[in-house]
């Protein structure tokens, strides 16, 4: 996280010197928000958007009604998909028993402000702040469902990393207990989500009615601390690999058991799965983010895999790892780029390897891993998207003694938006 941490540290409201914090008995918290440098925050958000392949301004910088439904008239309802995300601060209720109110406010607001900023980086819309929780929507009428899911996963993963590497460090340095956050995410298809107003007259809000919005909140409630729990529609629609998914386990009467379902009703014959999303493993699939590596040269400090996409308009544009969905049949050009003092490095051997995942690739190929022999020892490799799922292009290079000098993987998503979402509710026909 070395590349992200400087941005994380600046994004945080403000570091308070130890001596000031401790001498003030935490009363300084009351003044921290007032000294917040909004210009710096906006700059960091722009840098994060660029880093993760986002262009222009965030989709939404407001709270309340989703922008797609501002024109919804009284008594009107509308069907439209949405990906719902709930984030909650675990154990925050007891803060008031330990600290004065300014301290409690600082604790909670440190998480809430950070969540708002990071969710906006990934085009999320903040629907509601609920005490120590954030309810956000990802997706809109001009966005593919796959991209809404990807944005939600990227936002939640980055938020967990931010809490672990910056917020927790700040609290520990100042003799405070780090906060734990839990995230639940699920998505409902068009016919599974109804948008309308709740309430009466001026005391009302436009929001979503969907079992999948409800399940996002329920998933958050069952998520372990500092973890992300996702619903079946989400991981099945993207056909996420087992590499990123874990079955939640618990201990009952000394026996370890698995919890695979967020809904399990044998009478109604309703079964709806849930999985823990391994955000730390997932962040390792971003070629532009640092990760632990045993080779001599490391990515992206010494080298980086870069990808360009040839779109239908014949435009050649850069594609950042896991930034958005790619259609089938798209040409991808991968290149290994050596940095600074390694620019003149000429490895004796370069190997490109495709690592596929998902049902379509399993059914369509004899193997999910194959070397691109025609691009052996070349700095570039061309490939075409073919199967739904999350895939890798791996590049490794060796010295004259065939010793590994460096290796990294470039993660990407492919989806034709044709996979059905699971129906578990009652819908109008």
TrEMBL record:
GO biological process, one term: intracellular signal transduction
Domain Adenylyl/Guanylyl and SMODS C-terminal sensor: 299-414
InterPro entries for the chain: A/G_cyclase, AGS_C, Nucleotide_cyclase
Alphabetized GO MF terms: adenylate cyclase activity
Protein name (record): Adenylate/guanylate cyclase domain-containing protein
């Amino acid at each position: 996280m070395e590349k992200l941490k400087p941005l994380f540290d600046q994004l945080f409201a403000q570091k308070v010197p130890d001596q000031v914090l401790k001498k003030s008995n935490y009363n300084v918290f009351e003044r921290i928000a007032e000294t917040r440098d909004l210009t710096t925050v906006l700059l960091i958000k722009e840098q994060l958007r660029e880093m993760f392949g986002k262009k222009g301004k965030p989709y939404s910088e407001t709270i309340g009604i989703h922008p797609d439904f501002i024109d919804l008239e009284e008594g009107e309802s509308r069907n439209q998909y949405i990906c719902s995300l709930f984030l909650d601060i675990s154990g925050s209720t007891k803060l008031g028993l330990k600290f004065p109110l300014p301290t409690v406010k600082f604790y909670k607001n440190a998480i809430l402000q950070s969540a708002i900023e990071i969710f906006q980086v990934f085009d999320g819309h903040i629907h509601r702040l609920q005490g120590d929780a954030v309810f956000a929507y990802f997706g809109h009428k001009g966005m593919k469902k796959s991209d809404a899911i990807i944005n939600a996963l990227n936002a939640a993963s980055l938020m967990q990393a931010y809490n672990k590497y910056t917020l927790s460090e700040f609290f520990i340095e100042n003799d405070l207990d780090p906060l734990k956050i839990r995230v639940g995410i699920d998505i409902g298809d068009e016919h599974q989500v109804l948008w309308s107003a709740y309430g009466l007259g001026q005391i009302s809000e436009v929001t979503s009615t969907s079992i999948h919005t409800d399940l996002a909140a329920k998933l958050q409630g069952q998520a372990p601390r500092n973890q992300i729990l996702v619903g079946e529609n989400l991981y099945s629609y993207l056909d996420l690999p087992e590499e990123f998914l874990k079955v939640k386990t618990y201990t009952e009467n000394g026996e370890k058991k698995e919890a695979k379902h967020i809904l399990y009703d044998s009478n109604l014959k309703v079964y709806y799965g849930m999985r823990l999303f391994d955000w730390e493993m997932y962040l390792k699939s971003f070629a532009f983010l640092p990760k632990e590596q045993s080779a001599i040269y490391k990515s992206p400090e010494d080298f980086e895999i870069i990808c360009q996409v040839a779109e239908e308009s014949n435009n050649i544009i850069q594609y950042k790892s896991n930034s958005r969905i790619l259609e089938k049949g798209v040409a991808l050009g991968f290149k290994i780029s050596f940095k600074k003092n390694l620019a003149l490095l000429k490895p004796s051997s370069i190997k490109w390897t495709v690592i596929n995942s998902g049902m379509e690739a399993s059914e369509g190929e004899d193997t999910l891993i194959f070397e691109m022999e025609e691009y052996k020892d070349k700095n570039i490799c061309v490939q075409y998207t073919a199967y739904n799922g999350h895939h890798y292009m791996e590049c490794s290079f060796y010295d004259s003694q065939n010793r590994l000098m460096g290796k990294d993987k470039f993660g990407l998503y492919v989806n034709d938006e044709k996979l059905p979402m699971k129906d578990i509710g009652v819908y109008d026909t």
